[in-house]
What does this fold into?
Amino acid sequence: MRVIQKFLLSFIVLAGLTAMTSAETRVVFVTHGQGGDPYWSVVKNGMDDAAKTLGVKAEYLAPESFDMAKMAQMIDAAAASKPDGLVVSIADPAALSGPVKNAVAAGIPVIVIDSGGSELTRELGGLLYFGQNEFEAGMMAGERMKKEGITKAVCANHEVGNISLDDRCAGFAKGLGVDVPVINGVMDPTEMKNRIIAYLTTNPDTQFLLTVGIGGAEPGLMAIDELGLTGKVRIGTFDLSPTILQATADGKMEWGIDAQQYLMGYIPVVMFDLMAKYKLAPIADYPTGPGFVTKNEAAAVIDLAKQGKR
It folds into this structure.
């Protein structure tokens, strides 16, 4: 009987120790981009794949529209739930800096992705920033087109109020070396297309259209096609989708600037799991872009985009 009791006691202790060492890591993402958005669905896929591979519990939260007040509430609620790590995008520093600071003050480690940048991340006490410098990426695009003789361009912004998209337009103008008007657009693709058509109709000397994301790129391609301006008004964009890549492969789009957002979903899950299990903390930012995907590379990436990896 004593042998059985000792065995049971040993088993209970061992089970308890195993449970302590194998406790499930929990990571919460709160972003301004809905999981169904073509760009953000790739981020979510990265998060889901990492969670499945590592056995981590990962949750993806986002407001139904670009609603910074709602997102601030979501960050507060996520922090209150005491996750092992919090991943956020900071599209509007004025609205979101407070909740992020509060999370850090409560002892929640925070990684910033996509929007916000390195400097703000450090100011708020975040561990590191995953993404690209949007202003510099825009400037690289502007410099690229300046070398090709572009002097009349417009930037189409489908999500007004997102500071990162503002930086893309501003950087492009800096790199091009001329004023670049901005089309204030919307997420609705039909309305976005109509606004681009209206601008190009009243500004027939436009040589180049820069769109700052998929929400402007696909309507932009349709607008140029409907106006019969394919090949006359050139177009380039930030971010990738199967449609963008096919247009690039067909020579209808100059390039797509790839931020490799799958990494923004995958790697933070890995980092927070390592922190929770082994107390290993990242010490440097992780730049994921920019990379220009041109006609030569586009065909090789289309299948990956269809799989939600690019």
In short: The longest helix spans residues 2-21. Residues 130 and 286 are 5 Å apart (CA to CA). The radius of gyration is 22 Å.
